[in-house]
Write a structure and sequence with these properties.
Elements lengths: L2 H11 L8 H13 L4 E9 L5 E9 L1 H7 L3 H4 L12 H16 L2 E8 L4 E11 L2 E8 L1 H37 L4 H59 L8 H24 L10 E4 H15 L6 E4 L6 E4 L1 H17 L7 E8 L2 E7 L32 H11 L3 E7 L3 E9 L4
Parallel strand pairs: 7-9
Antiparallel strand pairs: 1-2, 1-5, 3-4, 4-5, 6-8, 9-10, 10-12, 11-12
Helix pairs in contact: 2-7, 6-7, 7-8, 9-10, 10-11
């Protein structure tokens, strides 16, 4: 009989079983965490005499962490990382990140190749309470190998595609010159058709590989997310039935991190499943009301951390365009504005008429975008260099660009590093 399942069943189903102490809660928490299919390490940051994070102490490790370090739990718990390993320059930088997260909150994610084990590992670090941080360690070797193989296959196919396209163009030019020679032309046309069929097949193969890769990527993220969210929900149920009062800060911070991951995965899912709208549905609607609906959605998603101001001087504004696409564009831009600026900074949505255009402006006062990277931010999966430590998929703005093109509109960006960004969607005034 599974002892863990038996204990959880007693506390969740039985009407007579009660949790009377913090020790009971911790026992259940660690029973759940210990058998998770990925590594979990709970640690405390250590500050040196200069007030800088310099090391950390193991407070708890599950079975997967024991396997990773090849050391028993009794050997690790209570010891510092430096008791076992020499801290390299790279690890010093990582420990500073751990310190920032454990003192201020947030999430830090990166992938590392362990050359000794010949495995790729994904690290996700978050802090449930001050000075304490949690490391989750997931083996992503299979997914990483698939990415590398996919890139090599795409490179080879693109090389073949360019070569054959060039030859096809040369054939067409030759046909135009020698069109008087009918038999020769017929033969060349036949070969050209065959070449064109090969090109179409290769293009289809590239699309299928891309779809397969994105679907696998979505699954690789969704599986561990499902495990983490289920564990959090289970612990919340246990905590509610307990007589011991516990701060909800741990659950709130974990849920916020999970929601950010889920939102990014939704953007990946849109592209993987080709669920982006491909047609325009034009009908009349009130733009002011549509904007207010989006603002309320984003505030709830952001857990009301940011003040979102809506600047306009009209009670209503009738528009004839696609409401769903307009709201999707504003939702992505407002979420990004909240994600890339601190809670004490406002976010502004403004409606203004400029010449023959209606401008929808989304302004934040966050990290900004480097000048040399502005032309790249609408590319799928591209993320600015100063946003590496802020979680995101790099897909939202590529969806915005596609929707803006469908509306026959324009998007403009004004941005300065550490001062913020302003995105302007310019629609023809005749539609509003």
């Amino acid at each position: 009989m599974n002892i863990i399942a038996e204990k959880i069943e007693q506390y969740l189903i039985s009407d007579t079983t009660e949790i009377n102490s913090l020790e009971d809660i911790l026992e259940l928490i660690f029973l759940v965490i210990d058998d998770l299919p990925f590594g979990v390490s709970i640690n405390r940051i250590m500050i040196n005499q200069f007030g800088e994070p310099s090391d950390y102490k193991f407070l708890y490790v599950n079975k997967e962490i024991e396997k990773f370090f090849n050391k028993s739990r009794s050997e690790l718990i209570g010891k510092r990382y430096s008791d076992f390993f020499e801290i390299t320059e790279q690890e010093k930088k990582e420990i500073k990140q751990y310190g920032r997260i454990s003192l201020k909150g947030g999430t830090y994610r990166f992938e590392v190749l362990d050359e000794v084990k010949d495995q790729w590992f994904q690290y996700v670090i978050f802090s449930p309470l001050k000075e304490i941080f949690v490391i989750t360690l997931i083996d992503v070797t299979d997914n990483k190998k698939l990415q590398l193989n996919f890139a090599e296959i795409i490179k080879n196919l693109e090389t073949q595609l360019i070569s054959r396209t060039t030859r096809l163009q040369e054939t067409i030019e030759s046909l135009q010159i020698e069109i008087s020679e009918r038999k020769f032309v017929e033969q060349q046309l036949l070969e050209a058709r065959e070449e064109l069929q090969v090109l179409l097949k290769n293009e289809q193969k590239i699309r299928e590989l891309k779809e397969k890769f994105l679907n696998i990527l979505v699954k690789e993220f969704r599986d561990p997310l499902t495990v983490i969210k289920t564990s959090v929900d289970l612990l919340k149920i246990i905590q509610k039935r307990s007589k011991v009062e516990m701060s909800t800060e741990i659950f709130d911070r974990m849920e916020k991190s999970i929601n950010l991951l889920v939102d990014s995965m939704e953007n990946v899912h849109l592209i993987a499943e080709e669920e982006i709208k491909t047609n325009i549905d034009i009908y009349e609607f009130d733009l002011i009301s549509a904007c207010n609906e989006v603002i309320e959605d984003v505030k709830a998603f952001d857990e009301y951390q940011h003040q979102i101001y809506f600047k306009h001087n009209l009670p209503t504004l009738k528009c004839n365009t696609d409401k769903i696409i307009i709201q999707a564009i504003l939702r992505i831009l407002l979420k990004n504005a909240c994600q890339y600026s601190s809670p004490d900074k406002p976010v502004i949505l403004e409606i203004a008429f400029v010449d023959a255009f209606l401008h929808l402006k989304v302004q934040d006062f966050g990290v900004g975008i480097p000048d040399n990277e502005l032309p790249l931010i609408f590319e799928p999966l591209y993320r600015a260099s100063n946003a590496a430590n802020i979680f995101g998929s790099g897909l939202g703005l590529s969806i915005v660009r596609k929707y803006v093109e469908m509306l026959n509109a324009d998007v403009h960006i004004i941005s300065k590093v550490e001062e913020g960004s302003q995105f302007i969607i310019a629609l023809e005034k005749d539609n509003c």
